[in-house]
Specification:
Elements: H1 2-27, E1 36-42, E2 47-49, E3 59-66, E4 69-73, E5 83-85, E6 91-93, E7 102-110, E8 117-126
Parallel strand pairs: 1-8
Antiparallel strand pairs: 2-6, 3-4, 3-7, 5-6, 7-8
Keywords: Signal
Domain Ig-like: 43-122
Signal peptide: 1-28
Length: 131
């Protein structure tokens, strides 16, 4: 009889664990989870940040932000000393400094009825080795 009680307790415990794990999974909103790409680089190097776009997508414009500051856009020529937007929507950082350590967001504005797509790339700048 004691053994039966322990077995029942284990069954109840397992059921509670399954219930809570199911509850957690169903409360997750997958649409809001946007994976980020991590790019590690060193000071003084050149970095290319690709903006992956399907070839069958009709694009109105592509914009790149460094944190919350617009650094490049395809619908108007906007070249700065350190950033260049290639025709394939890749953002080039010409000479990486510690200030380039940031989140870069590519936004692809598509024709109606499609909503814009975004992609986040985190650039982590490592210290330059002195030889």
């Amino acid at each position: 009889m004691f053994y039966t009680a322990i077995t029942m307790d284990r069954v109840v415990f397992k059921m509670l664990v399954i219930f809570f794990s199911t509850l957690t999974l169903t409360s997750c909103d997958i649409d809001k989870v946007k994976p980020s790409i991590l790019v590690k680089t060193r000071q003084g190097e050149k970095v290319l940040l690709p903006c992956h776009i399907a070839s069958n997508v009709d694009i109105k414009s592509v914009k790149w932000w460094k944190n919350d500051k617009l650094v490049a856009r395809s619908d108007s020529f906007m070249e700065t000393n350190n950033f260049y937007l290639h025709p394939n929507s890749t953002l080039e950082i010409r000479q990486v400094t510690l200030e380039e350590d940031a989140n870069y967001t590519c936004q692809v504005v598509r024709t109606e009825p499609w909503k814009p797509m975004t992609q986040v790339i985190t650039v982590q700048v490592l210290c330059k080795f002195i030889e």
